[in-house]
Amino acid sequence: MKKTGSTAPLVLEIKGNSLDDGPGIRTVVFFKGCPLSCAWCHNPESKKAGPELSFDAGVCISCGACVKACPEIALSRDNPYYIDRKKCTMCLACVRDCPSGALSAVGREMSIEQIIEKILPDKPFFETSGGGVTLSGGEPALCMDFVSALLRELKNHGIHTLIETSGFFRLDEFMEKLYPLLDAIYFDIKIMDSAVHKKYCGVPNETILDNFRSIFAAAARDRKRILARTPLVPGITDTDENISQIALFLKSLGADEAALLPYNPLWHDKCGKVGAEDPYRKSREMTSFPDREILERCRAIFAEHGIRT
Contact at 8 Å (CB) between 243 and 307? Predict the structure, then answer.
């Protein structure tokens, strides 16, 4: 695995008042770019590291202003997702001329100072609730130098820091640059079978599992919180076999806590906006909210192995 560079990642969104991304009230910084390519990615707009153009057909008023503004003739109702992305140069002339906001740029450059300036007004909420800042994505660890500098600045302001990660990174670099500046780590473990993991996530999982073992041991020593999380994807990650294997893996390390993330099918609506293919758009199982019984079944399997959720 190549060493990460110091290039600043694009910021997808900075979302305040979050109650689902760590303890207390949190502000979440979402970065673009991910080394995985999960078939069910809940943030498909975060997969690519570079800027993208989004088109929301539900907001479009069909005024034609964007078509007239585009110098590359890349916009047409005849295109599968409205935008011919091979022609688009991201000049954003269409975005500037769109009166409805149907067209928007996805991903923007922000300096560390700009990110901190956006976060600091939320600090009173962190202090009263035991919250802080969560770095998410995409994969924040893609740009470790930048993220390390951001974490250091957050710690200078006395802010609790947490990272949500896929775990696919160079361990030595993570331990040197990010680990010392983190108060908590939320670490995704999706699929235990490496071949199946590669099929659905684009990469095998040996590096991810090895990284978890090492970071779990360090976190236990340093009394830092590391939480394994498994998204429950219908027929892929939520099978009895996969959930049992994950529970056994965690138990073998001495873990007694994990998180099971209920499946949310709303990601399908995001795919077309950024021109991403959606192989499950016609699947009833993958486009519906799951029954509560599925979550309870998976919790029961974890509980059988002494893992609370």
Answer: no
